Amino acid sequence: MTPFDRRHFCLGGLGVFGALGLGAPLAARNRRGAPRTLVLVQLSGGNDGLSTIVPYGDDAYGRARKETRVESREVLRIDELRGFHPELKALAARFQEGGLAVVEGVGYPAPNRSHFKSLDIWHAADRRGRSAGQGWIGRACEAAFGDSVDSLRVVHIGDQPPYSVYSTRHPASSFTIPQGYRWVANEAEVAQLVDDSAQRPAANAALAHVRAMQEDALASSVAIRRAAFAYRPTVDFPSGPFGSSLRSAAALIHADLGCRVVSVELDGFDTHNDQRRRHDRQMTLLDEGLGAFLRDLEASEAGRNTVVLVFSEFGRRVAENGSRGTDHGCAGPVFVAGTPVKGGLLGAPPSLTELDRGDLVFTTDFRRVYATLLEQVFELDPAEVLGASFDPLPLV
Predict the structure, then answer these.
(1) Which structural domain range is residue 250 located in?
(2) Looking at the chain, which terminus has fewer C-beta neighbours within 10 angstroms, N or C?
(3) Of the listed ranges 26-35, 180-189, 236-245, 308-317, the one predicted with least confidence
């Protein structure tokens, strides 16, 4: 078991992801008057960007896509070149109103087409992936909050927390169903640690850490259950895991518990076959869930101070394969949404003819998006977290 695995403690459906840490008061209000929250929406499997923001006006798209093509009559047009997938009705409307930005051609140099490796690069914001150390959110917490640790500050809603939230000092909590929290996993192990430490006075510091982690996690469990019970959404969230995750995220944000990062996942984007039907379904799930979530966020100050990042580990290849699908590619669009977001098209659309071994060549480094969020959500110098300077984008 790696150190990364050992630090993933579970509290029933609630896990403490990171090093052991003592809870602290909520973060002080920043100079804007209220802290901003970042919601990470990961589209796992490699979302086909060309079927999400469709370049219907480019003849090369029609030549490359026969089985998976979204016809020009179907798209929700942005301009004479591109438009939203026809199932992204709520997001297209949000784009027209403002509050949704589309960053085109997002990727990184020397791309990796492995799901795991590419996600590690995105999560670490570093080509080295996990060997670089903490995740980019973990490093942001180190820079923003120092020794002030709060297990409600970073929360993942789902089965497996992403490496982006891994931190050696700032544990992230994770859960699936808020109403089901109770201390179950590792209870015997923690009890044994307490018993063993009681026999060794020299281990008092470690014992205090274990007890503090347990107490803080239990307190967090109570707070989250109360928030879920008290929450009354202003919209109808769709049923299913993704809609439920976003509903839970909204409950945490509106309760103003001090959550600064909330992570959720929508899986199912690895469309090697039968892509048109499968991707249409994914777009429906994304639009219904995220559309409801964005509307609901408008009901509170905490919600109106929330920024949502929607990303995938890579896009798909331009050409179709022989199974009415597409294989792993490189660049793709990223969405940034929320009341603080300026909206509009950013970045440059990648060429469909000047390719790298059949793949789109990225035009915007994803760390420019991160740099913007680090600056505008956490009020940090992005280079302190990313290890280098990346020009922010006019997103927020």
Answers:
(1) 3-386
(2) N
(3) 180-189
The tally of domains found in the chain comes to 1
Per-residue pLDDT at 207 exceeds 90: no
What CATH number is associated with residue 222? 3.40.720
User: Measuring CA to CA, how many Å separate 211 from each of 68, 151, 192, 217, 332?
Assistant: 55, 14, 12, 10, 45
209 pLDDT band, cuts 50/70/90, is: low
Residue 159 corresponds to which tokens in the numbers above?
Answer: 């089965």
CB 225 within 8 A of CB 101: no
Average pLDDT of span 204-220: 61
Contact present, 92 and 307 (Cβ < 8 Å): no
The pLDDT, as a whole number, for residue 91 is: 98
Task: Indicate whether 31 pLDDT > 80.
Answer: no
Residues 7 and 18 sit within 8 Å (Cβ to Cβ)? yes
Give the count of beta carbons closer than 10 Å to the beta carbon of residue 53.
Answer: 24
Distance (Å) of CA 195 to CA 18, 187, 204: 23, 12, 11
Give Cα 13 distance to the centre of its chain: 19
For all residues of the chain together, what is the average pLDDT? 86
Q: Which of 390, 379, 389 is nearest to 35 (CA)?
A: 379
Q: Which is nearest to 269 in space by CA: 344, 326, 333, 197?
A: 326
C-alpha pair distances (Å), 352 with each of 74, 209, 230, 250: 20, 54, 50, 38
Specify the amino acid at residue 28. A
Residue 80 DSSP class: S
Tell me if 66 is assigned to some domain.
yes
391 domain-assigned = no
Helix (H, G, I), strand (E, B) or coil at 144: helix
In a domain, 159, yes or no: yes
For the record, the structure tokens of 94 come out as 């949000």
